[in-house]
Specification:
Elements (H helix, E strand, L loop, with lengths): L1 E6 L7 H15 L3 E6 L25 H10 L5 H12 L2 E7 L32 E7 L16 H4 L1 H8 L5 E2 L3 E3 L7 H16 L17 E2 L4 E2 L19
Parallel strand pairs: 1-2, 1-3, 3-4, 4-5, 4-6
Antiparallel strand pairs: 7-8
């Protein structure tokens, strides 16, 4: 399997950096082809501005979404963006290694034409269909803090904007996230335990069932309102992220 590992942390010797190395060694030991993107080491340009769109005249209003679509269609994206797109298209699976506080820049895809049964190639469709994605992240507090009764809310809800809103949006089959708790208080012994748990997760990379998000264009949603059809929620609450996961 071809695996791209994206790492986002300013310190290679951090816990996240150490786990990144664990992942690379384990994937190679399993015989996978591996490529990496170390965003901080690459000095990856996270913000979007006019430098990303040299085809837009200096005196013209920049409409970033339209400019991005035009640049993609005309093959005028900047070389750094093209290089990362090529890696994403090459990979069968993409693993993202980053702490919870790190901000994602997001993945973008073009919108297809729509009619009364379909509304764009997104949320289960798009350029990364049949590819897998896994988020490996660290958090400072304990598991109970990120439980259903914890003050920030359950961890799966905090990660929903990434897993569903970014990764599933562009077509990935999203695997349940691998979360490492109490990152700031980890001993060497605990690290070894966490490293082995991560290795076990990676050994199941090809067979783990993805999160059963509802596909936008497979009949669960009203088009063009893009709201869940009545009667599909079952015993789930009438609102919230869980509505968008099949029972």
């Amino acid at each position: 399997m071809k695996v791209l590992v994206v790492f986002a942390h300013p310190e290679p010797q951090s816990l996240n950096g150490s786990l990144f190395q664990v992942t690379l060694k384990e994937l190679k030991a399993q015989g996978h082809e591996v490529k990496t993107s170390d965003l901080y080491a690459m000095e990856w340009k996270a913000q979007v501005d006019r430098q990303n769109f040299p085809h837009v005249p200096a005196d013209a209003r920049l409409r970033a979404a339209y400019a991005s679509a035009e640049a993609y269609a005309s093959n005028t994206l900047t070389d750094d963006v093209k290089a990362e797109q090529e890696k994403l298209l090459w990979a069968d699976t993409v693993i993202f290694h980053l702490p919870l506080w790190c901000v994602f820049t997001g993945l973008r895809d073009g919108m297809g034409e729509h009619n009364d049964e379909r509304w764009g190639d997104r949320y289960g469709d798009g350029p990364f269909v049949n590819k897998r994605a896994l988020l490996v992240t660290t958090v400072g507090s304990g598991r109970e803090y990120y439980s259903a009764r914890g003050i920030p809310g359950p961890i799966q809800d905090l990660l929903f904007p990434i897993n569903h809103g970014m990764l599933f949006y562009v077509g990935f089959d999203v695997l349940p996230s691998h979360v490492i708790y109490r990152a700031d208080k980890m001993s060497e012994a605990t690290f070894e335990e966490e490293a082995e748990t991560l290795r076990e997760k990676l050994r199941g990379l090809e067979v783990t069932k993805p999160i059963a998000y509802r596909h936008q264009n497979k009949g669960d949603y009203e088009i063009p309102a893009l709201t869940l059809k009545p009667g599909l929620e079952g015993d789930k609450p009438v609102a919230g992220f869980s509505l968008h996961i099949r029972p």
